[in-house]
Amino acid sequence: MRKFFALSILSLAACQSARDNVLGHYPELERALFQFQGEQQRFARENQVPQSFDFPGAGKVQVRDLSLDGYPGNSYVRCRFIYQNTTGQPVPRAWVSLDVLDAQGNMVASQVSVCIVPTAAPIHIDRFFSDELRTQTLDAHLQPGWSWRVTCKAEFYDPADIDQDVREGWRNR
Fold it and tell me: Residue 113: which domain range?
């Protein structure tokens, strides 16, 4: 038992020594990682989920999960969302974007999800579409006052196009 205890202590000491040697050689990396982890905690505190956003004439987006992920030099905002068609008419396609803004409100980066049903059917009234977006911060998260936003646009059928599609569909049969 004493041998096991002695070996355990030596093993722990060796692990700690190896950790100290690695971090001792890269103090700037350790500081950057510590700063990033602090920003992740602040971001989580200030951005509680779920959050809902109404876009009149385009639908509703509910952010279900939101986090600042990655590591120093490669960080991004990750957003899991649900798009709901609340427009009162079928939506063949909707675009939901996740934008990262600098402290002055200028867009730094943006990613877009195209909400489209993989069949020839539209997103019907009150139906949902779920997806995830990841937008790099390009170090904007290092500036106090940086932020993020979600936007949404929807496309609608033009009744003239529907009539034309129906006529052409019958001819092609």
Answer: 49-158
